[in-house]
Amino acid sequence: MTSLNSEETAKKIASAFPGSVTAADKNAVIVDSKSLYQVADYLKNSAEFDFNYLANLTSVDYTDYFEVVYNLVSLNRNHSLTLKTRCYEREKPTVPSVVSLWRTADFQEREIYDLMGITFSGHPNMKRLFLWEGFQGHPLRRDYL
Amino acid sequence: MEIEKPAIFSPEQYDAAEVTRIVQLQQNSQQPIPDPDGWLDEELKRNVVLTTVDFLFDQARARSTFPFLLGLACCALEMMSAGMSRFDFTRWGLDIARWSPRQADLMIVAGTLTWKMAPAVRRLYDQMAEPKWVIAMGVCAISGGTFRESYSVVPGVNRIVPVDVYIPGCPPRPEALIYGINLIQQKILKDSLVRKHD
Known about the structure:
heterodimer; B: 38% helix; elongated
């Protein structure tokens, strides 16, 4: 499987959705969280990219901001791409959900909500996955005890 | 060629033969019949042992302790190993590994217990029929182990269910599990039928 050149891919995304790409390096494309769903929809449904498989969905706490990482794979075209989005809100970070595009995201987004506290707007069942309801805090955050 | 004729008896000869048979039978039946239970007095002394009900039940229970394998984490693999042919805890009477708490006597808590799993473990313990015993296998089950300070791990299953034997190790070797089972058996042998669980 080849990894797509993310700088070139970022240019293509930027020409399709002006202002959506905030940064791009040789590892990943970073898009604005407001236009994340449109970009994900484009990456999944366009014939050129055809990312029909969400291999992994995770998040990182950089203390200044949260980063949500999407590892996209196309099983038809045999290529992959790392897509990221950032969320600078600390109290109630929100990122659009991609469950309607990839069903895999259902439990992954619930896990991120449970352990990192990022809400995914548009998720059909946004509640804790591993911990019980009523648990105080989100344990994978850097500022958790 | 002369054909040999079969012997033909007259009715008188038949009667005479019958009389002799009956008289012989009568004479033979005159001896006293030996007592069929006569041997018992001697054999009872040699073969019957009197004991207490407690002793009998304790021996039976200690030698047929059906385990309820509650494999929660990596200790479960050592428990499986202890059940397989190399170590084979069937030799100590743990004949059938039960996956239902209602048919088990001994709960082996093998592995890390999380708070989310804890209500299920308590419920399974409550579903087991008396008498019942619990083994806490591995350092996670004893005290939480490495994850003692964690937000999600129960620091010791004795906070959830009463534990009879603790087996330290991370994970304990199958020999250690078998030694713990032997300790449980020693404990069972000291029990009484009128024991009350709390």
